[in-house]
Amino acid sequence: MYNNAIYPVTPDGQCTPFVVFDGKRYSAPAMLTFAADGQSMLVSVSEGEFDITSTRVQRGAIVRVSPAGKIADVPLFSGVARPMGMDFAPPGFGAYGGELFFADVGLWQVPVPMTQALHADGKIYRLTAAGKAVLVATGFQNPIGVRFLNGRLWVSDINGDFIAGKRELPDGFLVELQAK
To answer: Model confidence over 53-63: pLDDT tens digits?
Structure first.
């Protein structure tokens, strides 16, 4: 996140930057997945400079990166605080098969309050074929991972357990979401 780069690691252990974000338009790449058609990588980023200690909600996006490492001019999606984990719904996940589901952390709270609960402003969205984000679930603290497994959507939430927050307690949780 902090050097604005994504690195591939080759089988022989070589590691060189694949794509470097400029830190001004987009910064702090956090999570990635591959587009359903396999033609691009989708990356969650901050719009503008990323500041994990900010007391204001920042703005994030999901951008496409080509196999050549070129960042698309127009983001796939823009407009939530901080997109994180992403996964495509499998066929048969209700009417939502093929749609991209993603987590939004909301406001990072750094340092993490040691005796108070974190803001429950984390959300899960799905992105329609028309590019509209539709709210799926709310009430998360810091949802990071989104993964479909056996026809069900699993969300991992680290709650306050992350090094930057200096809480470092095993207090994360998993939630299962089912299509209606």
So the answer is: 776 777 899 99
